[in-house]
Design brief:
Elements: H1 19-34, H2 44-51, H3 55-71, H4 73-83, H5 86-110, H6 120-130, H7 136-147, H8 150-164, H9 167-205, H10 210-216, H11 221-230, H12 241-249, H13 252-283, H14 287-299, H15 301-316, H16 318-338, H17 342-370, H18 375-387, H19 389-404, H20 408-411, H21 414-438
Helix pairs in contact: 1-7, 1-8, 1-9, 3-6, 3-13, 3-18, 3-19, 4-5, 4-7, 4-18, 5-6, 5-9, 7-8, 8-15, 9-14, 10-11, 12-18, 13-14, 13-17, 13-18, 13-19, 13-21, 14-17, 15-16, 15-17, 16-17, 16-21
């Protein structure tokens, strides 16, 4: 597809935007929305102290953004096939603005002296809304696939996912310093402004892929496809998206891949918000240093490893890469369970982020091999339910702290030790069965 920007001609043959513009604004929008992952994590200690939270309630609070951010990926990703990407993406960012605005209102009216546990349900709800932008992942993945031909698609998908997911790492560094200089209310006021401006920029510059542009001009389906092909689009919506999801849900292999993604990407989401408390409470780091260590050792590094995971999978095979990745996860979490040494914990965290990041990429590389009947639907299930691990696990880690005290921050990693072993078993099962699974199957467009 040509990179030049064109305008609709008198006959409606032109399109607005270009692939580069489209993916640039999609990546920017995802960067803005994905920052909601850490809406509470970097400043969790402040809420923990003011509200007097238990480990369980703290875990639920820091995980709140993942509740909507993961589950909304499924319906909003499917919605793209009906209306294009701009509308679903903008609505998700708008919900994030509402959530952040609600949280800011509570802080303005009640913080610090009037903020009590009676506010906890509202704080949880607004935190969940603030995480809606996380769900834009599935929207952006679909739209990027429509804008780019197969020879460039993999690279552009990696750029979208890799650069977009760097925002939690940057915010994990910035938020504690903002808390120091602006206070809690000032920090969220700045975040609200960032979201509001970012959403406005997205709405102003985002463009749907050519097929949807022509449909909105009144072309019927076949004419819209023909015009879109003339403008370089080669991939189109494959029919009823929700039916594809339902079909994928009936296939056992979809759930095996989802289970592994629950551990890899869900683990990345969960530990991104949990690590600041881990470094502060177990290793005695101040809030600012804990944010920097979390970002550099895990939240920023893991997406970089993930960006290389596709190429590694193509070179060595998705099954082999997944097995090796989960071996790294198991070894790293074992080290985190037993060590109380700061530097060894940092090293183990880097390896854990590498294992989770590369595994996440390898799982999507395996998807078209094992679920060719419903690639789109399985992608929604894996991304949505798999990412839900970011919400489920932090409260469990909090229970370890409630039962064991500070040492529970270390022993809680046994959760990912067990999940890593289970994922390793699943990856081994896929490796053993791959010859019969892929026999006589021709490549699909999703293999590109």
């Amino acid at each position: 597809m040509s990179e030049r920007d064109t305008s609709a001609g008198a006959d409606g043959s032109g399109i607005r935007g270009s692939p580069r513009r489209a993916v640039s604004i999609l990546t920017f929008g995802y960067f803005v929305g994905f920052a909601g992952v850490v809406v509470y994590g970097p400043v969790a200690a402040e809420f923990e102290e003011v509200l007097g939270l238990s480990g369980l309630l703290l875990g639920l609070l820091v995980a709140a953004p993942q509740l909507t951010g993961s589950l909304l990926r499924i319906p909003f990703g499917a919605w793209v096939d009906d209306v294009g990407a701009k509308k679903p993406f903008a609505i998700l960012l708008g919900l994030s603005v509402v959530g952040m605005g609600g949280l800011l209102t509570i802080l303005v009216l009640a913080y610090p002296d009037g903020l009590t546990m009676t506010h906890y349900p509202l704080i949880f709800v607004f935190g969940s809304l603030s995480g809606c932008g996380i769900a834009a992942f599935s929207v952006g993945i679909a739209d990027t696939s429509y804008w780019y031909r197969s020879r460039h698609r993999g690279t552009m998908l990696a750029i979208f996912a890799g650069l977009g997911t760097t925002s939690p790492g940057l915010f994990t560094i910035v938020a504690p310093f903002a808390l120091l200089y602006l206070g809690l209310t000032g920090t969220y006021a700045a975040w609200f402004l960032f979201l509001l401006v970012g959403t406005g920029i997205f709405v102003l510059y985002a463009v749907d892929s050519p097929y949807f542009q022509f449909r909105k001009r009144g072309f019927d389906e076949e004419a819209a496809k023909a015009r879109a092909k003339e403008n370089g689009q080669e991939l189109f919506p494959g029919g009823d998206a929700m039916e594809s999801i339902r079909e994928a849900a009936t296939i056992r292999r979809s759930w095996l891949l989802t289970a592994m993604f629950f551990v890899s990407f869900g683990g990345y989401l969960a530990l991104t918000v949990w690590y600041p408390s881990y470094w502060s409470n177990l290793h005695g780091l101040d809030v600012q240093t804990a944010g920097i260590v979390t970002a550099l050792a895990f939240t920023l590094s893991s997406p970089l490893f993930r960006a290389s995971g596709g190429a590694i999978s193509d070179r060595f095979g998705g099954e082999e890469t997944t097995i090796a990745s989960f071996v790294v996860v198991v070894i790293a979490t074992l080290a985190l369970v037993v060590t109380r040494d700061l530097y060894l914990a940092i090293a183990a965290t880097v390896f854990l982020g590498a294992g989770m990041g590369i595994a996440s990429a390898a799982i999507y590389q395996l998807l078209p091999k094992y679920v060719p009947e419903a690639v789109g639907g399985a992608s929604g299930l894996i991304g949505g339910i798999g990412g839900f691990g970011g919400f489920v696990v932090p409260p469990i880690l909090g229970l370890f702290v409630d039962v064991q005290g500070v040492s529970g921050y270390a022993t809680g990693f046994v959760v990912y030790l067990v999940l890593g072993v289970v994922s390793l078993a699943i990856a081994g099962l896929l490796y053993q069965s791959r010859s019969s699974t892929v026999r006589s199957r021709s490549p699909t467009p999703a293999d590109d």
